[in-house]
Fold these 2 entries.
Entry 1:
Amino acid sequence: MKGELHPYQTYSKNFILDHPYCALLLDMGLGKTLASLTAIDELLNTFEIIDNVLVVAPLSVADKTWTDEIDKWDHLNHLAFSKVLGKEKDRVAALAKTADVYIINRENVEWLVNYYGRSWPFKTVIIDELSSFKSSKSKRFKALRKVRPKMDRVIGLTGTPSPNSLLDLWPQIYLLDQGARLGKTVTSYRNKYFVPDQQNGHVVYSWRLLPGSEEAIHRNISDICVSMKANDYLKLPPRTDNVVEIELSKKGRARYKELEREYVLELEDTDVVASNAATLSNKLLQLSNGAIYDEEGNPQEVHQKKLDALEQVVEEAQGQPVLVFYQYKHDLERIQRRFKEAKVLDVSDNDIQKWNEGRIPLLLAHPQSAGHGLNLQQGGHIIAWFGLTWSLEYYQQANARLARQGQKEPVIVHHLVTKSTMDEQVMKSLQQKEQGQEALMAAVKAKIEEYRS
């Protein structure tokens, strides 16, 4: 297919060419993969200033998205690629091939760094979904940090740079500029821009921004970050967010309150014990969905209210396909028992093609496995969140499987929320996080009005 970049993609491509290290904070559907590959092609073959490139991406994206883009576009399909995936012997063989683009999943970054040791060969690195390196304690971050001085060019791509708070930014920006803008360590970053919020003695549970810090952080990174929102550049169908409120029975409400108050829930044949606040939160979310794991790890069904609500959503869809996001294994099992036509998403089994051809009426997916790089917009326009996620990143990415360029119908996102439970807290948290991220995106937003189509 002949590849003609949209003006905003050309801007992104040129931004990469002009900045040895940078981040494209592009909303889902704005074609950051195409823009990045076009820039890489020019660096390789027009300017001849790089030898090859390493792409680090989520597994499904590494396996499909990057190679599909290379094969799809006429101006890119001369690029030779090698997928460094699978078993170790397969990864070693893939590295031995001569290629322009080497693609590896982020889980194997530590292995790759250890494999090459001091002889790190990749001078240009693209980190797709840069926000997955938001933890300075993660092995993948520490591994890349070790070899960052050996890189000449680093390109970060994400639509969700601060999915939880601006604390998430430091590791991501460090991998770009090695601490030039936000400090050499996460400790210095925290001490400069934050103060402890909730703490117990010397243990700090959360941090609060100092006055003026948000603006200072945005200002400090604005020269190497370009931000674009899909609504500014794409004509997307409207999206409706619908909250389906679920009322527990008197017995169900009593059980929920018992667990919330006592950290212990006595069931007919077993008990459920929550050892701490984090575990309690997780248990309460399970109970809100209708089942809960006992002390033996066995699921115990408490109610079917959400299953009934999902059935109503499916009925109201009147035969139109519905994409359902679930959280727990027992949720999946219960949904499958109720809905015999449901199919669990398996990217290795041509399910994407089947869904987009309208052959799957009810597709079940976990937001962590279906959140990146999957184009499902041709198969349906209705989403139902059976169980909510605390992660803004997973939430936004999952919704963007249908609410993206190429979608021809208005997108409807149903949130099944059990009233007066932890579900409501998760919804509130997602909304607050989204507001914080919007501020960051706006602060570094590309001022390219003249480039708009």
Note: The first helix runs from residue 7 to 18.
Entry 2:
Amino acid sequence: MRPRIASLVPSATETLVALGLGPCLVARTGFCIHPAGAVAGVPKVGGTKDVNLAKLRALAPTHVVVNVDENRRETAKALRGFVPHVIVTHPCRPQDNLALFEQLRTAFADEPGVNERAQVLAAEFGAALARCRDRARPQENVLYLIWRQPWMTVARDTYISTLLAEGGWLTWPDARGGAQGADRYPALRGDEAWLGDISRVLLSSEPYRFGAEHLAEAQALCPRARVQLVDGELLSWWGSRGAAGLDYLRALSHGA
């Protein structure tokens, strides 16, 4: 019997499809939009933070993939009441993608092609990591913004921050958010002394969609910095997009 998989995480949905498990998907969130052709016909069950549990239960999944950052703990607890297998993911640094591929490979090893595709994803990611580390870069102080009103950024133990570190970019503030919770994405007052030492501000395309209209506002926050728009999907989505994210970071940092 084939698994019936619900994915409540955009990165996981994309990765499951890359593993050849698209036909097994029976549910996704409204934010699970990639790859468009593969997920278009998969029912939506709300968002990552407001899952419609009744609708999900009716779809009778055998497996649900959740994430510590993206989904609420109470959602995962509720799922365990009616889903045989709840798969909890939590990549916190680029290297964790290798463990993720193995986690999903193990869970779905009986499905045709999964083992082979997991090996390919791991090899592609390893090659991209090697390319990203092909030469040393001078360290640069960076502010990566994910929200405005209030300004919000990333702690140094998040996937985004550790990915940027591979390009020589040290994110500020000097804070670690722990395994989960709001501290992983701290809010700024806007008058922190270290803002004057930031040399680059990165405005992400998600979860807040920064655009050209926000460049001047961010420039005022860090007057000495270079401000630029960046692809938030490539810098924050883990899993099968991890290799592309490293190559994107490499291109950004090489073009500094």
Note: The beta strands are 5-7, 25-28, 63-67, 85-89, 140-145, 169-171, 200-204, 226-230.
